[in-house]
Amino acid sequence: MEKFWEKWKTRKFEIALVLMTFLVLVVRMLFLERVTVDYEVFLQNWFDEIKANGGFSALKNDLTNCDYNFPYLLILALLTYLPIKPLWSIKMVSILFDVLLALASMFVVKRLVEKKQKKYMFVTYALVLFWPTVVLNSAYWGQCDAIYATFVMVALLKLLDQKYFQSCCFLGIAFSFKMQFMFIVPLYALIFLTDKNLLKKLYYVFAIPVVNLLLCLPVILLRENIGCAFQAYFTQLGEYSDAIVANFPNVYNLICPSNLQDYIVSVPNAILPKTMIVILAITYLVTLIFFLKNKIKIQGKEIIFVGLWAVVLSTFLLPYMHDRYLYLADVLAILFFLVYDDETEKDAINIWVPLGIEICSWYSYIIYFSHYEKFIVDKRIVSLINLSVLLILTTKIFRKRRNV
């Protein structure tokens, strides 16, 4: 017993992490049997089709109604060889990445806080794993957003270590799983274009598509077609083009005519989506000019801050956004609040950033889980909440300052 207490005193942080991991796994086990429409219509059918056609070899041909890239489909193919219920195995992969996402987030915070490191690391780990939309995304919904978010977080970790090529490689892994990685790309553009030394290494960004090609290589060899590595994303770009937004609280709920019960807002005209994309591009250009004029380099905590702002801004202005597209912002907002929680930079309004973003994400989840029947709050109100977060972040971004 004495030895146990001695080990507890010296390893209490590690033991606390293990106990926390056990607890979050227990919580997630409560949702393992929950079946959603996405699972029934997509995931289960893809799994069954892969299994019925020989596992990995089934990927030689397109799956029915499938718009996911091959790295995730390769994981599904691997799962077909396991003697585990498909619903469980699919969710367990996502739950594993919940833990990895929390660990990566924890080490990001470790790099950015100087005092009480272990306290902030543990709080980060616990918050990410217990954040409602993180729990529900994997354990209830069976979605895989934690996979791409994990690799984005590792990419940010490499940015903090100034290992830019490695960062782009991890961003390429994120790209291979979800096109939503693009929301963080403006951060990289601003970092590279505001640093003369990095501008000479802009070719690093080519690692992003190359890594995707490498991860798709097994299927490329099966199909003898290199272009198939990008096929899923071209398919996604053509999907839902008649809906300018689908169950997502952004600008289109405020400016486009629709009924409260319409979770899909139709495209009012062909000009609006293109106009908003141009406005977004101009916003980033103005930001770049502002950073260059004020000699601001994005480093340290600014990486998390500007990255979060880019995700929120992009998803607020871009057309064709869907319910889970704030997932990366959910996690980054937690980190933003924690790394700016010190005596010199603490701002009471910062707490609204993670809470406001979570309200917006939670709103979309409730509507989806209710089969688009429960609209307890006007979507315009939730869109205004999202706008309030964006305004807070934007105000902080453009607060005149020079990089020290």
What is this entry, summarized?
This protein is 66% helix and 2% strand. With 404 residues, the protein is mainly α.
Plain-language structure description:
The protein has 404 residues and is mainly α. The protein has one domain. It has helices spanning 2-29, 37-52, 70-79, 86-112, 117-130, 132-140, 145-160, 164-177, 185-193, 196-199, 207-215, 217-223, 231-238, 252-255, 271-293, 301-317, 327-339, 352-369, 379-397; strands at 243-246, 264-266. A two-stranded antiparallel ribbon has the order 1-2. The model has no long low-confidence stretch (mean pLDDT 91).
Secondary-structure content class: mainly alpha
Put simply, the count of helices is 19
Task: Give the total of domains.
Answer: 1
Name the beta content range.
under 5%
What does the average pLDDT come to? 91
Q: Which sequence of SSEs, written as H and E, runs from N to C?
A: HHHHHHHHHHHHHEHEHHHHH
User: Taking Cα atoms only, what radius of gyration do you get, to the nearest Å?
Assistant: 21 Å
Shape: globular
Mind describing the biggest β-sheet?
Answer: 2 strands, antiparallel
Helix content: 55-70%
In whole angstroms, the N-to-C terminal distance is: 52 Å
* Low-pLDDT ranges: none
| Total DSSP E strands | 2
Q: Largest beta sheet: what is the strand line-up?
A: 1-2
